[in-house]
Predict the structure.
Amino acid sequence: AQKVTQAQTEISVVEKEDVTLDCVYETRDTTYYLFWYKQPPSGELVFLIRRNSFDEQNEISGRYSWNFQKSTSSFNFTITASQVVDSAVYFCALSEAKAAGNKLTFGGGTRVLVKP
Amino acid sequence: DSGVTQTPKHLITATGQRVTLRCSPRSGDLSVYWYQQSLDQGLQFLIQYYNGEERAKGNILERFSAQQFPDLHSELNLSSLELGDSALYFCASSVGSENTYEQYFGPGTRLTVT
């Protein structure tokens, strides 16, 4: 069965600090997709990134970067030079190719609080 | 703005009642998904429809049902409501039915059962 674990429930940083969010996943499928979503205080879920299991290249988008390591089943997310607007709950999610449809299994989320 | 719309934004109702949540997917998207976010269960997948047909099912209670109409909008019906059904219900949509497509989420409907 697929499972996503985000061990950090809450992280508090001061503006301009870097913050790394951990995500560990479990799956028996060899083909799968990993996602990160952001849930700001307003409540909506905002798609950030999708990564397939065959692409282990790290990705950078502005102040955001992602590190995918199949050897440790991890897909970590780093916010560089954090800003107050980064305060949100961040969810890591997994979707297995062999499963019917496109079900997302979410981790429990990590709340990031960026203080000015 | 993801392009996915959900109505109503908030809903307050009593135990035992029935409610209907509505979702309109992004233009061009054929798949619609429903998720429930609660404090104790987190974000959980309920059900997926693709072009009017049920595609995948999660831990959706028998008291809950959904459908996708020919115009591709979807409705989630919750009946015999219990206090534990209080949650934020998200609808999401994607172009296709498989996991090569990212899902875009609506703003959610917050359901409070009193």
Notes: The two ends of chain A are 41 Å apart (CA to CA). The interface with chain B takes residues 32-33, 35, 37, 42-47, 50, 52, 91, 95-97, 99-109 of chain A (CB under 8 Å). The mean pLDDT of chain A is 94.
